[in-house]
Amino acid sequence: DSGVTQTPKHLITATGQRVTLRCSPRSGDLSVYWYQQSLDQGLQFLIQYYNGEERAKGNILERFSAQQFPDLHSELNLSSLELGDSALYFCASTMGATSGGKGGTDTQYFGPGTRLTVL
Amino acid sequence: AQSVTQLDSHVSVSEGTPVLLRCNYSSSYSPSLFWYVQHPNKGLQLLLKYTSAATLVKGINGFEAEFKKSETSFHLTKPSAHMSDAAEYFCVVAYMSPSYGKLTFGQGTILTVHP
């Protein structure tokens, strides 16, 4: 158990709908990262928040948005859903703003994921 | 720019035989490299990480990896496979700046262990 929690575990919805995925980081961690894992794209970094502020953006669609709240939990909002959005969505957390590298060796701890199915 | 290539999408071994999962990276600076494992319907678990200390890195469950700068490789090995090692393994390179960090994942290698 990594200490990172994600809800819900599974989500089934229809095209055009909007969903919200929730992530609670490990106690004491200030950074939250969101990833999408799909069969065709593999694991892709979406976005990072650190202490409530957006820090880095990856391959995140404009239909997707995220935020980190004062209690440090984060939500990923997916709107106008398409069939291709079906995937596993992971969040991860670190104490600092960085993950690896000479300036910091924070390990990203991953949650169990939310499996989104768009029908 | 950084990238990581896992050279095998599937590796199959017999229980008790050695495991080798190959990974090459591309990075314009000294990278941080990780191996993560994902068991079916589970999240990602860190096996080990390299951050410019010793080039031979020991991880959990008997896995280790060697950083070879001249070959830009970071292959994962284990002397003797166990049935519980069957999973998907991801080689990961980290990009770090003073203010943020992100991981770039390889495409994954599925390890099958036969009895």
Describe this entry's structure for a reader:
The complex is a heterodimer of chains A (119) and B (115). Chain A is mainly β and 119 residues long. Chain A has strands spanning 5-7, 10-13, 19-24, 31-38, 42-50, 53-57, 64-68, 74-78, 87-94, 109-110, 114-118. In chain A, the strands form two sheets. In chain A, strands 2, 4, 5, 6, 9, 10 and 11 form a seven-stranded mixed sheet that branches. In chain A, strands 1-3-8-7 form a four-stranded antiparallel sheet, with no helix packed on it. In chain A, strand 5 and strand 6 form a beta hairpin. Chain A is globular and about 35 Å long. In chain B, the strands form three sheets. In chain B, strands 2, 5, 6, 10, 11 and 12 form a six-stranded mixed sheet that branches. Chain B has 115 residues and is an all-beta fold. In chain B, strand 10 and strand 11 (101-105) form a beta hairpin. Chain B has strands spanning 3-6, 10-14, 19-21, 23-26, 32-38, 44-50, 56-58, 64-68, 73-78, 87-96, 101-105, 109-114. The mean pLDDT of chain B is 89. Chains A and B meet through strand 5, strand 9 and strand 10 of A and strand 5, strand 6, strand 10 and strand 11 of B.
Given as residue ranges, the uncertain stretches of chain A (5+ residues, pLDDT < 50) are 100-104
SS summary, helix count of chain B: 0
Number of helices of chain A: 0
Mean pLDDT of chain A: 90
One letter per element, helices H and strands E, the order of chain B comes to EEEEEEEEEEEE
**Shape verdict of chain A:** globular
Question: Which two chains touch over the largest interface?
Answer: A-B, 33 and 30 residues
In percent terms, what proportion of residues of chain B is strand?
over 45%
Mean pLDDT of chain B: 89
Largest sheet of chain B: 6 strands, mixed
Uncertain segments of chain B: none
**Oligomerization status of the protein chains:** heterodimer
Structural class of chain A: mainly beta
> Count of DSSP E strands of chain B?
12
